[in-house]
Amino acid sequence: MTAVLEAIGMEKRFPVKQQMLLRRRDTFQALQGIDLALYSGQTLGVVGESGSGKSTLGEIFGDLQQPTSGIVRYKGQDIRSLGEKEYRRFRRNVQYIFQNPKESINPYYTVERILVEPMKILVDGFKPHKARETVREMLNRVGLPDSTLGKYPSELSGGQCQRIAIARALLLSPEVIICDECVSALDVSIQAQILNLLKDLQKEFSTAYLFISHDIGVIHYMSDFIVVINRGRIVEQGEGSQLIRTPKDDYTKRLIASSCSTGEGCVCGVR
Q1: Burial letters for 187-213: b for 16+ Cβ neighbours within 10 Å, e otherwise?
Q2: What is the pTM of this model?
Q3: Which of 6, 69, 106, 218 has its CA 20 to 30 A from that of 58?
Q4: Is residue 271 part of a domain?
Q5: Domain-located, residue 268
Q6: Which residues constitute the domain of residue 144?
């Protein structure tokens, strides 16, 4: 089976400072030798502490930044070699849900415009009347009434804004949604609602998720397969429940222990 998204030998280095006299630039190695594949309908969880490189990995998969070396493939083809038409298809089929919902949507647009605008750009044969009807249907699917369409983000709660972000991503019927800490800014009760909503919508639309979080409990609850990242390297990976039950790497064990001791996440019981 061909992966929807695949990384081969992915590496990312960032310049951190330049020593002018020596003309030498030091770099920070954010990702090292990442080999990873995401398949249709799968939820691939990526977990690690802050600074582990997990968000950088997600941004490279979504082509929000480029790797220093290595290849990212979309359905077997290097995304750097995609033609204009193929890249447009990639942009439509790989969507992103960011950590802070209010920072990822335009505060000066109404909800209706926030949802219609990407369709206008990326959907072939765009028809305004049909798009508005599709938007209303999707809004209802994510649990928001039609009256939300005329509102601005400042009039909505964080949970409502995240539902808008989810609706915006799903409206393009993507094959993949990259969820980068998409519930970490929300209250625990709202987190549970959003996670369950994402699970229900995945069953309906067969969307693959690349789910990124520092919270191994959330990752356990959402994921079919889990990858643990520490200092830019994959230190452990495996089927979700099995990895949680029998972790091998000390770093993974610490993440699980921390989740249980703080009551965070779902390792010690689903919310």
Answers
A1: eeebbbbbbebbeebbeeeebbbbbbb
A2: 0.89
A3: 106
A4: no
A5: no
A6: 5-262
